[in-house]
Amino acid sequence: MIDNHIPVHYSNRSRRLVDRLTARAIGACGIGVLLVMMLLFVWLLWVVMPLFATPSMQPGTIQPALSAQPAVALGVNGRWGWRIDAQGAGRFFPLSGAQPEPALKLAQGPLVSATSADNSSVLLLQPNGNFRLVQPDFSAPDKPPRWTFPLGDGFITGVNGQLTQAALAAVAGNSWLAALSDGRHIRLLRLQVGRPVLSDTLASGPVDHLLLSPNGRLLFASGGGQLRVWRIEDEQITLRDTLPLPHPPRQMALLSGGRSLLIADESGISQWFDIADEKGVHLHRIRDFAGARAQALLITEPQRRVFATLSAAGEMQFYASKRDGAFYRKSIGKDARAASFAPQGDGLLIERRDGWQYWRVDNPWPDISLRSLWQKVWYENYPQPDWVWQSTAVEEPFQAKFSLVPMVAGTLKAAALAMLFATPMAIAAAIYTAWFMSPALRRWIKPAIEMMGALPSVVVGLFASLWLAPHIASMLSGVLLLPFALGATLLLCGPLLRRLPPRWRRLATPGGEIWLLIPLLLLVSLLCLWLAPLADRLLWGAPLADRLPGGYEQRNLLIAAAAMGFALVPLIFTLAEDAIFSVPGALGQGSLALGATAWQTLSRVILPSAASGIFAAVMIGFGRAVGETMIVLMATGNTPLTEGGLFHGVRTLSANIAVEMPEAAAGSAHYRILFLSALVLLIFTLALNTLAEVVRQRLRRRYGQYEGQG
Q1: Domain end among 295, 313, 344
Q2: Does 158 score more than 70 pLDDT?
Q3: Domain for residue 208, yes or no?
Q4: Which of 172, 174, 66, 179 is nearest to 115 (CA)?
Q5: CA proximity to 83, closest of 50, 113, 44
Q6: Residues 294-339: tens digit of each pLDDT
Q7: How buried is 637 (Cβ within 10 angstroms: 0-12 exposed, 13-18 middle, 19+ buried)?
Q8: Are 216 and 199 in a shared domain?
Q9: Of 169, 235, 471, 523, which sits most exposed with the smallest number of CB within 10 A?
Q10: Are 442 and 481 members of one domain?
Q11: 498 is in which domain, residue-wise?
């Protein structure tokens, strides 16, 4: 007897050692992946968290009073402060507390003064009607600042009457517009270097407060229970609005840019700005700031839509135009007589009777809050509250709008529609390939579909934007009809197959039906894409895209969904086909042996066993769709809209990051909000994958008995 047994020598000890090392290596790699994810999460949080940090104020040393007279004009520029008192004495003083510059007599008091919005010019009016325009000049960094007189060293005469109110706007580099009032009339002065003073007189009624917009286009006056607004255009002055006021204003101020008017009265502080409607552009009361009250001082920042109130008791409250109420409070001392913000809002100069004090303010992003990022905000000149993303604009001054809702909505819409396009096609192809197709044909078809996944997404996006988009626009009616036509064709193929001649039915052998289906589906597609647009033009005279009531954008959600769905099909198909093909063959063979049909075996045995794998394939595809960048970047038009439909553009979180990150200044609010977008995308992906894994495990436990029988 011949012994054919070949002895195999192995060491159980060495095998156990290899198993332990392999298990530890796999575990270490898994822990490493988790650590990388945690580090990425922590890094994103580290960049984002300063957006929501609480502001702070650091007091400087209290310095002795510069004059017994109260200040009528006060400002800050760099390391210097400046003031003009009620008797016309102007003085510069270092904010470090060093010796101040000697005072210069700029005018003879008592004075009525007006300061331009950027604190660059001050108009001083004397009781006799003479006036002078002065400017603090900080152009020489190595020398102390000085006073300049752009209209000349002398006083300008010609203003009659006892003036009580004044307003000033620096219209251009060498021209200004001044509004003066004696309590009943308003006189406009056009001041320009080297030219005589031009004036216009307005009959306005009682005037208690007077303001000019920074560009000199709007004049606001309150008095007699009314708010009046004049439109100033070259030589034409028009009374545009006359609005009743429930309470007489105690204070009025313009936010940076001059588009928002603040009115403080006994009911609180309200914000007003222009809104265009069918009757034209008119001023409207937009909001009342929660908890805000008229206080001793109302101070606005020169370059941001931020203002503060300071009570006689010394409580300071900060407000921003995008927030409903105060976002910061601090007690800074009693009896403040005047205050002025630094140009960048990073400092606050406070003057009291007994001295002055400079406070350093840390408030870099006052407009950013969870509400402004996720809820509707009523922006200046918008007809209603809305979700808006607009990080930059050509116009000045510009208020950045950072709502993440349009990008989140665009991400979900694009991903959901792409999955609606890709999932049925990919899973149906996987079912047919794994269960019905002949093995010989499967060896060719499966690698061919998987090779589709090797196409770079930028190539797919380029193809969609340059070729697919214009063709779909010209054949839109046929494209919309195509899914119904293909579905009807597939449903009719079963009954029609039995009526074919025997020689044709031989081609439809089990697993070879595709040779009949593919030419038929291609023929139906060509007819649908050719006949439907042709009939559309003959009946209506124009393609469907030109007749849509909501308009049609050539790069839109439909284009992005079709292109992204094409890119998702190979991924979902491969994973789903592997899950179906991996079901033990004994399960299907046993079901067929018991008399079940192929469809009954598929629906009741094979698919439940592969359900966890198919679900995982769908979720992985959805995660890929959420994070897709280049296709949606090139095929959607990048329009950050929330309410846009199928034929309008969208913008996704990933595309927004790719587009705007190169232009965002490092450390700016724009930069950090883009990182917040990445954090939202990461959290959404992690939550989605976690949910998918939980569902997959439940499906696996539910249908585990099938695998156990295998």
Answers
A1: 295
A2: no
A3: yes
A4: 179
A5: 113
A6: 899 999 999 899 999 999 899 999 999 988 889 999 999 888 999 9
A7: buried
A8: yes
A9: 235
A10: no
A11: 476-542
